[in-house]
Amino acid sequence: MNNIKEQFLLNPEVTFLNHGSFGACPKPVFEDYQRWQRALEFEPVQFITKKREEALLVSKKVLAKYIGCDHGDFFYIQNPTTAVNQIVKSLDLNPGDEVLTTDHEYGAMDKTFNFYSKKKGFVYRRQNISLPLSSKEQFIEEFWKGYNHKTKVVFIGQCTSTTALVFPVKEICERAKSLGLITIVDGAHVPGHLPLNLQNIQADFYTGTLHKWLLSPKGCTFLYVNKNFQDRIEPLIISWGYEPGMPTKTKFLEENEMQGTRDFSAYLTAPAIMNFFEDYDMPSGQAKCREVILEQYPIFCDLLGTKPICKVSDEFLGQMCSIPIKTKDPLQLKETLINDHKIEIPIMQRGDEIYMRISFQVYNTMDDLEYLKETIKKLEIMPSALAAL
Question: E strand or H helix at 108, and its extent?
Answer without folding.
Answer: helix 107-120
